[in-house]
Structures are given as C-alpha cells and as structure tokens.
Write the structure tokens for this entry.
Amino acid sequence: MPDNDKSPLLIDIREDDLLALSAPVLDTLLHDHTTGQNIFWATHDYEALGRGYDYHAPILPELITGERGMVIRPRVLKTRAEQTDRAKDMAEVFTPSWVCNAQNNLVDEAWFGRKDVFNIEDAASHTWQATTDKITFPEGKTWKDYVRATRMEMTCGEAPYLVSRYDATTGEPIPISERIGLLDRKLRVISENVDTSGEWLEWAQTAYMNIYGFEWQGDNLLLAREALLWTFIEYYQEKFHKAPLLKSINYIAYIISWNLWQMDGLKGVVPDSCRNGVMEKEMTLFGEQEKLVNCPGCQQNDTRRHNGQYCLIRDWKNDKKKIRFIDLLK
C-alpha cells in the first residue's frame, strides 16, 4: 500500500511492492489484451542487462523484481544521459504539471461552460491553487455525467495528463488536494458526492472505464498503469481512512490493463508488428511456396491496410465488447 511519506523517491512505485501486494495484480498490469501475451520492452535501453531485455522481449515479473527491482524507474529518476537518449530515439519529452493543468482546465472550461472549476492558475509562477468548495454543475449536467465523460491521453508516457501523483519533469510529489489529472478530477467529484464505500467503488470503476491512453514503450506503459492503480488506492484511503479490499484493487487493475494499452499511434497496431520485406510460406495449387510480404498500409500510408496486429480495446458501455481502436477513428 502507498506510504504516507512524500519524499521524492517514493514517486517510484516499486514492482516489488506490487508483487508483495498481489502477484496477480502485477501480472494483470503486465498483460496485453491484444496479443494475449505481456507488454514488451519496445526499447533498446535495457539490452545491456542480458537475456530477456531485448527490444521484442516481453516484460516478465522476474525481470523487474528482486535483484532487478530498480530496473524500471520514472523518467525523472533516470540519469540525464538516459533521458537525452530517449528524447533522441523516441522523442520522449514529458510535460510539466502546470502545462498539463492548463490544458486540462481548457477541457473542463468547455465542458462546464466556465473557468476555474477545479483550480485557479497563476500563469506567472506556473502554479495553481485548488478550489475548496464542492464542485457545482451546469444546468442539464450532473456529477455522474462528468464521471462518465470519456477522456484519453495519446502517447501517454507516464500519463501525467491522467493522474498527477508527481510532476513528471521535477519529481515533486503532489498532494491529493492539489492534483490536476483528468482522472484525479473524476475521483475528486466522486468523493464529494458519495459517502459509502460500495457506491464510491462503483463510480470509481465507472471513472476508470472512461479514461484511456496508449503508449509505445513498455516501461512507460507499465509506469502509467501503476500510477493509475496507486491513484485509486490513495483516493480510497483519503476518503475512507483504510485500504480498499484486494478484490477491488484487482478489478481496477483489470480495467487499467484494457484502457491503457501498447500501440503505434500512427498505425493503430502493436508496435513493430507490421511485416515488411519478410518471406512467408503459403499454400498454392503447387504446394507450399514462399513469397515476399510487404505491409500495404506501410507502403501506401493507409492506416486501415496494415498487416500488423490491430490493437483491441474494450467498449465498457456496450456489453464490454472488444473492438479495434482503429475502428473508432473516422
């Protein structure tokens, strides 16, 4: 469970802590529902550690716990050289919390029809002050509508727009009362309007079902998933002064594993799953023969013609049906 100490080092959720909490929870956070396997590294950063850490290898619990328990760390705790390399290789640049807050405020300004709903910004000092009054809703809209409103962070990295346990660029922890993520705001609204644990859990699940994000690199995706899970635990503890039951944590982890997924955002497929310039066997009238395969989507820049594995998400509002993410795009 989260430690109440707010030292910067504790922004890093240790996989050993997740393993101690529940091995199945860690397994769920590592699962990829499109491939049926684990999410994979999708970066060369860890290859020097040996077998199991190459680009296409799945991220397994034994590779990130125990003696390897410090392998995956938030960007702010990486060395400057590591940060620079990732910026060059994958254009990885994380956004300060004050920028996330300003942009999230614009989203809410449009939804509420007024400014300064959750906090008041000080643009000069790049700070904000959370509002303290209970959030009120415009005519024709309720807090339940807000919780059900769908939000998504593209190429989410560690998901600083969704949850704000810490500033992704400085590592400074952010107390619950001042958090600015899109999911943080939903959980605040739930806590302001619900008194019982059962109802709070029901609406928290609804909030998580309406928060989405995708990311290329497996380590970032795991960090984002962990941050969303820990946020759930922290808000529940803040509201009820006790930890949620393990079965509740398990279900939130399951929702997160669907709603934050590993994807090439330009193609809608599992990263590097398109087949280009490879020889594959096929059955013909003359027996088994080999032919050269190229991806038509890659060749023609056609998002709907890739031969890679298109990513699946879950439509929680429609009988929890599995759908291809690409089919949501017009």
